[in-house]
Write a structure and sequence with these properties.
heterodimer; A: 597 residues; alpha/beta; ABC transporter involved in vitamin B12 uptake, BtuC; Rossmann fold; 3 domains; 10 strands; B: 295 residues; mainly alpha; two-stranded antiparallel ribbon; 2 strands
Chain lengths: 597, 295
């Protein structure tokens, strides 16, 4: 190869490596965790700035020198790279604390976008920070002096390709360890349905922050490598649309798929934006550049329209067949789906004290007080609009109370978040299907396992060896449950492709995998065919025999009659009666509520 | 003449442009639930339409009409051929925002490719200046304020006294309820895009009039303050958007007396962040929980 070709190829390879790291980082945030991070480029920028100032040595402000900046130092390689990662992580943490609150996706994207815009203005105007709009230049190339190579030598160029390759492989290792682990499964569940994930005990705030910080640190590493290669960095290097080229890469490659992100990086930022800058320009100055960004916009829209899952759709995870042979529900000890309790049967497990909920002056629930006894199935019935689902929401923590208290095992839990209640064994199901659509049926079940090995960052980075053993046991447990509910043939299908009735089953099985102590069921048989409904009914009766306590909202009075030990009747936001079905049937208030409404 | 006085004057002009744009933005967002990131670029397109009209010899008022109409046309077409296609297929929020972002990239860079990156200006004569209280306005600036007042009066009567306006307000407050009451929501949605585009176009022309020169990126940079005004007022609340525009317009211009002018826009950005984080339903709204703005 002539040296010109070598220069061209090695330069493209370096850009490719840098863009792959960035695309993997954004894929973790956007593709896996569902964060629309419109400030992405800011994290690449901070990594570049930090790596630059820690290589440049002390600031040399004018008139003696020509660039003024903070933190000037000359650290040995690869400390500047590591410091950049740290800075990216810290900035993510700071912005995440403010920007990752529970907001609508598009509002959250706006908040993050605005952070990026503010940062550009600040960096441009505070000239003492990173030398303002002129930016930093003459950043020394790492290790060139140690190697005794001229940084303009083709040999050094290939050496730098090596550095980028090593960092790239490490970045892939980190991202792959996360996405393939129980932690990655939790992230994907949160992305598909945040409320359902929280109701299973997942701390979604923490999960989102974790993906944001790891992604931010990796983005910063990509920026550090970039500045070490091009030796200069200014606000013009990280203008807003760069963020969108990485979004295009992730969407084109396949959101949620690491391999897709790599292909996306190869196609969009490299082939499309970098490689084309070497072709001869035509038309007026800047025309090619504008047309490139038109194409990026079109790519995003066309892929979302026709191939929303990208060129390489997210992999559907399959689990290996059990080593111990197909475990069956019959052989599995039943209580493995129920959290053990030392509460004596019929003692109060949950108590609602004068719960009230208003929406802008309208009372959805005016006054609800009742108890749920241990080891029993309690029914919650009433006409439409009586406030049953709102009460369930207040018990589970999804709906804040306007007044009143919730007591669980004698402790007040009114202020606890949904995931904290779930971690104590208070698990709910939803009235509307809330399966994790892009997870397989089996994954939907396994994701519910509380405190799984490898569901934290450290555990995930310890890779499969650390968490595989426990996961296999849980997969066996899930398979036993699937067999019991006759859903084994569907175990590898995406939950989003199931029928309505099958989704109800997945929802119930998933709740059981979370080892509930008290199960709050919101119309578990709605939209289910009668045969299936009958089977669900039998299962619920069996679970009661295993010691599980349940509170069940149900419309079908026949089911309530057969299944429930005691029944709470609500109408117009109030509890109007409480007792066994036989006495309620002759209660005039109840009859009036049902007949008059 | 005091600096505060004149900056209040500038603030009123900025607020006038913001009000036209923010009312258009909030009407459409409220009715369709689509946060349209291409809105600023439609403003730019309208400004260029007016610019080419004046180059063709049209008087300024006719150019403004041409600008507004092209804004309306672009807005309706964008919805008909792009956004509604995704909306009908039940695109999720994250997909929708990416689609509007893509539209913004295509529009803005497409215009740069067509019209070039240079700054252009509408032929306005400063002419006589008018002293109003402590502030001095040029003719075009006064025209902007009057235009804004007329537009607001027009929107007010439309929303208040016509069936279409009432249907739009109802849809913005609770789309599901409006649909189940038998309102033809598709027609209302089309009307919302049309009206929003008309206001957007007018705001684009006003912005170009106020700035001595503009370029293909002008509308895009103006978008965040527009969104800030709309969000501050509460999405789907036109009167809130007017109030929000007044607050943002005055706050950004008066801030110049305290901080460096380079940080003028940061004031609007900061207001947007604070409102989104602490009162995403806006200052005038009670419907946040019904529309699940804060999940």
């Amino acid at each position: 190869m002539s040296s010109a070709v070598q220069l061209y190829v090695s330069t493209l390879l370096i850009y490719l490596g840098v863009d792959i790291i960035a695309a993997l980082a954004l894929n973790l945030q956007f593709g896996v965790a569902g964060i629309v991070n419109f400030s992405f480029i800011l994290f690449q920028a901070v990594g570049a700035y930090v790596a630059a100032v820690l290589t440049l040595g002390p600031s040399t402000p004018p008139p003696a020198g020509f660039q003024d900046y903070v933190l000037g130092a000359t650290l040995p390689y690869p400390l500047p790279l590591l410091a950049a990662a740290g800075a990216g992580g810290l900035l993510s943490l700071a912005i995440g604390v403010v920007g990752l609150r529970r907001l609508r996706t598009d509002y959250q994207a706006m908040v993050l976008l605005v952070f990026s815009l503010i940062a550009t203005i600040v960096v441009t105007n505070e000239t003492g920070l990173f030398n303002g709009s002129n930016g930093l230049s003459l950043v020394p190339k790492p290790l060139a002096d140690v190697l005794g190579l001229s940084p303009y030598d083709i040999g050094y160029q290939w050496f730098f390709v090596g550095i980028v390759a090593v960092v790239c492989v490490m970045a892939y290792g980190v991202v792959h360890a996360i996405t393939s682990s129980p932690l990655g499964r939790n992230l994907r569940a949160m992305r598909d349905n945040e409320h359902a994930a929280a109701a299973l005990g997942k701390d979604v705030t923490r999960l989102r922050m974790l993906a944001f910080v790891v992604g931010g640190a990796l983005a910063a590493v990509s920026g550090a490598l970039l500045v070490e290669f091009i030796s200069a960095w200014s606000p013009g290097s990280w203008f807003l649309p760069e963020t969108f080229s990485f979004f295009a890469a992730v969407i084109v490659g396949g959101a949620g798929n690491n391999f897709g992100a790599i292909v996306g990086a190869l196609l969009v930022p490299v082939a499309f934006l970098e490689a084309t800058s070497f072709i001869p320009t035509f038309g007026r100055a800047g025309l090619v550049e504008s047309l490139k960004w038109v194409a990026v916009g079109l790519l995003i829209m066309i892929f979302l329209a026709f191939w929303p899952r990208g060129m390489f759709p997210e992999r559907r995870r399959r689990f290996r067949a059990s080593r111990t042979g197909a475990a069956s529900y019959a052989t599995a000890p039943s209580p493995c789906f129920v959290r053990g309790t030392d509460q004596p049967i019929d003692s109060t497990l949950l108590e609602a004290r004068s719960l009230r909920r208003e929406y802008g002056g309208v009372h959805a629930v005016e006054e609800a007080s009742f108890t749920v006894p241990t080891g029993r199935i309690t029914g919650l019935i009433g006409p439409n609009g009586a406030g049953k689902t709102t009460v369930l929401g207040m018990l589970a923590g999804a709906v804040a109370v306007s007044a009143g208290n919730v007591l669980y095992q004698g402790a007040v839990i009114t202020r606890l978040a949904p995931h904290q209640r779930a971690q104590r064994g208070l698990i709910r199901t939803f009235q509307q299907s809330s399966e994790f659509t892009n997870l397989s049926v089996l994954e939907n079940l396994v994701v519910a396992v509380p405190r799984a090995r490898g569901d934290g960052l450290a555990g995930a980075l310890l890779t499969k060896r650390y968490w595989r053993g426990q996961q296999e046991a849980e997969v066996d447990r899930a398979r036993a449950l699937l067999e019991r509910f006759a859903m084994t043939p569907q175990q590898d299908e995406l939950a989003g492709s199931l029928s309505g009735g099958q989704r109800r089953l997945v929802e119930i099985m998933r709740a059981l995998m979370a080892r509930p102590q008290l199960l709050l069921l919101d119309e578990p048989m709605a939209g289910v065919n009668p045969t299936l409904a009958r089977r669900i009914e039998e299962h619920l009766a069996d679970l009661r025999a295993d010691g599980l306590t349940m509170l069940m909202v149900e419309h079908e009075l026949g089911v309530v009659d057969r299944l429930c030990d005691a029944v709470i009747v609500m109408a117009r936001g109030r509890v109007i009666a409480h007792g066994p079905m036989s006495t309620l049937r002759v209660n005039q208030d109840v009859l009036d509520a049902y007949l008059i409404g | 003449m005091s600096i505060v006085g004149s900056s209040i004057g500038f603030g009123l002009i900025t607020a006038s442009i913001l009000a036209i744009a923010a009312v258009g933005f909030t009407l459409q967002f409220g009715v369709t639930n689509i946060l349209n990131l291409a809105y600023g670029d439609i403003m730019t397109a309208a400004a260029f339409a007016a610019y080419f009209a004046t180059k063709g010899g049209a008087p300024l008022w006719l150019a403004a009409v041409a600008g507004s109409l092209s804004g309306a046309a672009l807005s309706v077409l964008l919805n008909r051929f792009v956004y509604s296609w995704f909306a009908r297929r039940g695109a999720k929020l994250f997909a929708m925002i990416m689609v509007t972002l893509g539209a913004s990239l295509v529009l803005q860079n497409g215009m740069t490719a067509l019209f070039g990156p240079d700054f252009v200006s509408l032929p306005t004569s400063v002419g006589t200046t008018y002293q109003v209280g402590p502030a001095i306005f040029t003719g075009p600036q006064l025209a902007i304020v009057v235009l804004a007042l007329l537009a607001m009066a027009g929107v007010h009567s439309l929303l208040r006294y016509t069936r279409l306006g009432q249907a739009m307000r109802a849809t913005a407050t609770n789309p599901d309820l409006a649909r189940s009451c038998g309102m033809a929501t598709n027609r209302i949605i089309d009307a919302a895009w049309l009206l929003s585009g008309l206001l957007c176009g007018l705001a684009g022309v006003a912005l170009a009039l106020n700035l001595s020169t503009f370029t293909t990126g002008t509308g895009g940079t103006f978008l965040i303050p527009v969104i800030a005004a709309a969000v501050l007022g509460g999405i789907g609340q036109p009167y809130g958007a007017m109030l929000g525009a007044l607050v943002i317009g005055l706050a950004t211009e008066v801030s110049v007396t305290v901080v460096s002018p380079s940080y003028k826009t940061v004031v609007a950005f900061a207001i947007l962040i604070v409102v989104l984080l602490f009162r995403p339903q806006g200052i005038l709204s009670e419907v946040a929980t019904a529309k699940e703005i804060a999940t």
